[in-house]
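Researcher: Batch entry, complex prediction.
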Amino acid sequence: MTAGEKALVEAALRVVRERLMPVLEEPLRDEAGLVALVLEWRLAALGERPSAGAALRAFFGEDGEEGALRRRLAAGIRDGTIGDGPDLRALLRTLIKARPSIDRTEGAC
Amino acid sequence: MRQLDFDALVPWLRERLAADVRLRLVRPLPGGAVNRVWRVVVEVAGSGRHDLVLKADGATGLGVGLGRVEEHALLVALHARGLPVPAPFLAGDDPGVVGAPFLLMRRLPGLSLPARLLAATRDPPRGEALAEALGGALARLHRTPPPDLPFLAPPRPTPGRAAVARCRGLLDAADAAEPVLEWALSRLAALEPPAHEVCLIHGDCRTGNLLVDADGGFVALLDWEFAGLGSPLEDLGWLTGRYWRFGRHDRPVGGFGSLEALLRGYEETGGAAVDPTALLWWQTLGTVRWAAIALLQGQRFAAGERDLDLGLTPLSLPALEAEAIRLVERLERGGGAA
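Model: Structure tokens for the complex:
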């Protein structure tokens, strides 16, 4: 894990712990807590470590409960219960890395 | 459903024109991200040959924008005012005629496919001339008093707020949980520039909806289904978005011209002076809007509309999200158009 990735995961952890978990209802809070533990372990482990994007992919996936967490984050940003800040922006950047992509910013129509 | 049924078109035309009509040519035309477009040539007794373009609703749509009959009514008004649009012919909302609501307009010769337009303007002076002419055309549009048509509603409470709300509506329509796009919209709402005067806008002015001649000279603006009342900067911001440059980032206007040429043509033709930071705000809004549309295009593919472009478009989301963050942070620093 590079220093940049480590910083991203740390920022993601802060958002999950300090800003997302307090507004989540059960069972999503348990799910988020588990993810926080996994992220923490990723940071602490000495062996092979996945990238920040891979670490978060399981958390902010597109389906199921993970998708519900992503949905809560989007709703919280829209209704203002999750405000702006450097840690949120770091998490958003990490989320971008976690979705499939091709370099296709142009020429779609 | 890529095919339209033209069997009922001739009887419909005979009734509308009160004349004998013969179909001479029917050929699908490329392009059209949302609708289907066909070249239709008919021979009408007493008035001769009519070379037309038929535009019909796609099998699935985005659920936003004008219907074909409304678009036809707008074309009638714009053509009467001398704006560079195809001459309208007829429109019908009865799906029994060709299988979907449609409009007919007179075909203008020229190029509109992005690859061909960019080839015709590869020579930089041609691209600059096109950007300047397009700026002039947009200024004329924005200065034209909006026609009195019931579907042209003023944006409330401001053009910027209304545009943010429309983007949120697109995300809701896609049933999409998009934290990055939500964040960008919340920042845009907080950073909204002073409201500009409200005017008639094209709403989808970009490479792909421009018609040029073989030398890259400006001919007309096509596809008015997203037209409405809004900020003039919405057209300029959408046109200069990174996603319509087709990789030619040294030519920010649609991949063919410079911002300076566009704004020179715009301001010399009577368009209001453009504030660079306000233009950046609308470029950012356009990025989020295109990302939301990309989600909906992917859903159309998933719903069975087997167009490769529709299936691939959602894969551009990470790049669009990264661009949205970059533009918001540039906006926060007080930067100008990117």
